[in-house]
Amino acid sequence: MLKRPKPKSRKRDPIPPGHRFDGSVRDVNSEGQGVVAHPQGRIFFVPGVWPGETGVFEVTSLKGRMGFAKLLSLGEASPRRRPPPCPHHGFASGSCGGCPWLFMDYAEQLARKEQSVTKMLQPLNEALTVAEIWASPAELGYRNRGQFKTDGQRLGFVAANSREIAEVHDCLVLNDKNRQTLKDLRAQLPNSPWRPDRAKAWTTLDIDDHITATEVSAHQRRPFRQGNSAQNQRMRTWLKDRLLEAGSLDHVLELFAGSGNFTEVLVEVGCQNIVAVDSFQPAIERLNKRALSGVTGLSCDLDRSATAAQLHKPLSSAALLLLDPPRDGLKNIGDYLASAKELRTIIYISCDLATLTRDLKVAMTHDFELQEIQPLDLFPQTPHVETLTVLGR
Ligand SMILES: C[S@@+](CC[C@H](N)C(=O)[O-])C[C@H]1O[C@@H](n2cnc3c(N)ncnc32)[C@H](O)[C@@H]1O
Fold it and tell me: For residue 338, which of 49, 78, 255, 386 sits 20 to 30 Å off, Cα-Cα?
């Protein structure tokens, strides 16, 4: 029997790196890059452009169904565009890349962040109004911590997807104390002890405004801190008010507690029987050393499926759950909620909208209702947005 010829697959023409095209920016993605459609339909992500802008773009790479391009020339510019106030800002190899939205007016950055929170979370409770985003009191000079990279000759930052150290002489988002530390560290160049081992491309130098350059050690991780002190204070005040409203002050479980930034607030308002959990042993040791009244600090990895069972006792008695996870969220939140029968309130502080949305959807299947959404800007000049939420059962 004759075989029928297979129909030819209707593959699109490949769009090679280097190919140029005209386009307009229709949105920004969660990384803060512009979303631009190629005339053939493929979507490209482009740094340094804003919705509504048009331009000529050049394809830089393709990864699976995703495409990346750079701006060659701007056609119609956003009226809110501004000259970036930092000489290290840029998107080419060798630029800092640390403040991808520095070219845009701050009010416009805030509006965009608020919109993305509304787009993701409003569908979870249409009756709820997303509160107006809390701007950072300072749009520059706010960062209380940072991490430099050095090879002993150069010192600066490394842009995402780059292996090249961008030499940085000053950094406008660091607060004054940290800017001075940067200057003092640079004065130590060249510095052969900072030369990286063969296995590493660079040596890391972590700084924060509790230390000076003489106290900085290579590859020494500093304890986690919320990176914007003024906004951290605002989060703590917000938390205090919500705890007083919730009224469920006995039996509290705090996951991703670090060394107790929010645990202090729990104690301050009179919470009792607090179990605070974090995987970073030194943070929990520091918390336990402080001997806060009614607090037991536990070190465990909350991503492990066995941990929910290990925490069965505090989970089964908890009336209030406080969460402040890293970007991955609480992956197996369903396992935790399944044994939390007494739980009335969840306060979820998140630095990633996608995982927050995922986790809130799971919480809703456990009879929780989203009751408050408060966006807050911890990191001006970046697409990062912090979201404070309250859920009630
Ligand atoms: C956003 S920080 C919050 C810390 C603290 N709430 C604060 O305000 O300083 C996230 C915390 O999650 C911890 N963490 C990250 N992955 C974890 C895991 N798999 N299990 C438990 N804790 C984890 C980190 O050590 C870090 O302290």
Answer: 386
Cα 82 to ligand 1 centre (Å): 36
CATH superfamily, domain 229-392, is Vaccinia Virus protein VP39 (3.40.50.150)
Q: How many CB atoms lie within 10 A of CB 213?
A: 16
Provide the whole-model pTM. Answer: 0.94
Per residue in 155-188, pLDDT (tens digit) is: 999 877 788 899 999 999 999 999 999 999 999 9
* 30-45 per-position pLDDT tens digit: 999 999 999 988 999 9
What is residue 77's DSSP assignment? P
* Tokens, residue 214: 């003489």
Catalytic member of 99, 171, 271, 351: 351
The pLDDT of residue 285 is: 95
DSSP 1: -
Q: For CA atoms 270, 271, 275, 276, give the dihedral sign.
A: negative
Centre of ligand 1 to C-alpha 327, Å, is 10
Is residue 337 within 8 A of residue 347, CB to CB? The reply is no
> Is 99 assigned a catalytic role?
no
Domain boundaries, the chain: 20-74, 145-215, 229-392
Rounded to the nearest whole angstrom, what is the distance from the C-alpha of residue 62 to the centroid of ligand 1?
34
Pocket of ligand 1 (CB under 6 A): 224, 226, 256-258, 261-262, 278-280, 283, 301-303, 324-326
Pairing label, strands 320-323, 250-255: parallel
Ligand 1: residue of 278, 287, 304 to mutate (most ligand atoms within 8 A of CB) is 278
State the DSSP code for 58. Answer: E
What's the CATH code, domain 20-74? 2.40.50.140
Residue nearest to atom 26 of ligand 1 (CA): 258
